[in-house]
Write a structure and sequence with these properties.
The complex is a heterodimer. Helix content of chain A is about 20%, strand content about 25%. By secondary structure, chain A is α/β, with parallel strands linked by helices. In chain A, the strands form two sheets. In chain A, strands 1, 2, 3, 4, 8, 9, 10 and 11 form an eight-stranded mixed β-sheet that branches. Chain A is globular, with a radius of gyration of 18 Å. Chain B has a single domain, classed as Glutaconate Coenzyme A-transferase (3-Layer(aba) Sandwich). Classes of the chains: A alpha/beta, B alpha/beta. The interface of A and B includes residues 37, 38, 90 and 185 of A.
Chain lengths: ~230, ~230
């Protein structure tokens, strides 16, 4: 069950600065961070997380940016204990840190990763998928046959905190996104206890067409307008 | 056997796969991998072909020209692209739902190795420098038809169609069609069958650079080739 907003100290409204928002992130937190390549990651929140010096973080994300850029800065700074994600070939520091035993890395096929995050957000603890059956990434995962085809059991992936990026938000926290910067944002918004969203543009209540809201505000705890 | 320069080989492979989609005359939803597979888009003429990108878009337009580049409108290879009228954006779970749910008619992927059982190795060379799978396993498991676009041999001259994959496998028995610069091969009821052969090579020579046994007619159909001059 989610903590009440009062317990999180958020009763004064959802908007705050990046520094105030990151102060709510516990040491050693497990953090979902959105983005694919250079699109859809919350760059200001990542900068604030780097500046905070918080350590022992477990980051769940598609990739880890590039060395010493965007999400990659967290690894360069030595703030990461482990990574769960899909594709780190854009950042060779990840393989190097893993080979030296400085971090753990759990690779998950991208579709299984996305569905596992969605599952966590909608109360499904695990699901069967045809992806990856018999491969190295199936190690330790249960296999079961349905209708003559084998499937792997993939457990849901939740987190303490989600750091996300939206294009527009109203004061309640209803969100819309921008083109392919949407990617993992809507599903990660459902899968963490504390959801912090960096927002390009705040708009007045009623300004977002209800038919076009992608993430309803029930999932959103904190809004950080881009300065 | 005449060696085909790498760039010409890639153009030929991309054009030949695009011809499959152009000839179908049907509405097709296609996902293209990075590298040679991305080049397939340059030769698609069937307006019923809609391209999907796993980072959350259906209806990709051509690559963006310098002046129209938008850093937040990219394909899965992080290349800035454009919108085609009627396109849409969606989250990553829905995107892979399209793929895994059997809504994508075909995917075109590159590979390090494909073996005679249709097993594909394309996600990692275990050299300690790579750590990533991306959507490769989802695409081969989910797309209705899997086209492998690859040069016939690797940089060391070794065959890439092998008797048994030696690299970590992406998907078992998932390959449906392999197109190289020297031919078109289909997997049919678990058998590898040569459909077309390039004019630069004899059947005997093709067998000598293909490490898996394959069936072929005594005089296979000549491979359809792109027009001589590159189309602009």
């Amino acid at each position: 069950m989610k903590e009440s907003e009062e317990k999180k100290g958020l009763s004064g409204g959802k908007s705050m600065s990046a520094e105030e928002a990151i102060a709510l992130v516990p040491q050693g937190a497990r953090i979902l961070i959105s983005g694919f390549g250079n699109a859809g990651d919350p760059k200001m929140l990542i900068d604030a997380l780097c500046a905070s010096g918080k350590k022992d973080l477990v980051i769940l994300s598609n990739d880890l940016g590039s060395p010493n850029a965007d999400l990659g800065k967290l690894l360069t700074n030595g703030q990461v204990r482990g990574l769960i994600g899909t594709y780190y070939n854009w950042n060779p520091e990840v393989a190097a840190a893993y080979n030296e035993g400085r971090i753990f890395v759990e690779l998950v096929p991208q579709g299984s990763f996305a569905e596992a995050v969605r599952a966590a957000g909608v109360g499904i603890p695990a699901f069967y998928t045809p992806t990856g059956v018999g491969t190295e990434l199936a190690a330790g995962k249960e296999t079961r046959s349905f209708g003559g085809r084998d499937y792997l059991l993939q457990e849901a992936l939740s987190a303490d905190v989600a750091l996300l990026k939206a294009h527009r938000a109203d004061p309640l926290g209803n969100l819309t996104y921008y083109k392919t910067a949407r990617n993992f944002n809507p599903i990660m918004a459902m899968a963490a206890d504390l959801v912090i969203v960096e927002v390009d543009e705040m708009v007045p209540l009623g300004a977002l067409d209800p038919e076009c809201v992608v993430t309803p505000h029930i999932f959103v705890d904190v809004l950080v307008p881009v300065r | 056997m005449k060696t085909i320069p790498e760039e010409e080989a890639k153009r030929r492979i991309a054009w030949r796969i695009a011809k499959e989609f152009n000839d179908s005359g049907r509405t097709l939803f296609i996902n293209l991998g990075v590298g040679t597979p991305t080049m397939v888009a340059d030769y698609i003429e069937n307006p019923g072909v809609f391209l999907q990108a796993e980072n959350g878009m259906l209806g990709l337009g051509p690559a963006a020209r310098e002046a129209e580049k938008d850093l937040f409108l990219i394909n899965a290879g992080r290349i800035p692209i454009t919108e085609r009228p009627g396109c849409s954006y969606f989250d990553s779970a829905l995107s892979f739902g399209m793929i895994r749910g059997g809504h994508i008619d075909a995917t075109v992927i590159g590979a390090f190795e494909v073996d005679g059982d249709g097993n594909i190795a394309n996600w990692i060379i275990p050299n300690g420098k790579q750590l990533g799978v991306g959507g490769a396993m989802d695409l081969v498991a989910g797309a209705k038809k899997v086209y492998v676009a690859m040069t016939h041999r690797n940089r060391n001259g070794a065959p890439k169609i092998v008797s048994r994959c030696t690299l970590p496998v992406t998907g078992y028995g998932e390959a449906d069609c392999v197109v190289t610069e020297y031919g078109v091969f289909d997997f049919s009821d678990g058998r590898l069958v040569l459909r077309e052969i390039a004019p630069e090579i004899t059947l005997e020579e093709l067998r000598s650079i293909t490490a898996a046994p394959f069936e072929a007619a005594s005089s296979p159909v000549p491979m359809f080739l792109p027009p001589e001059a590159p189309e602009e």
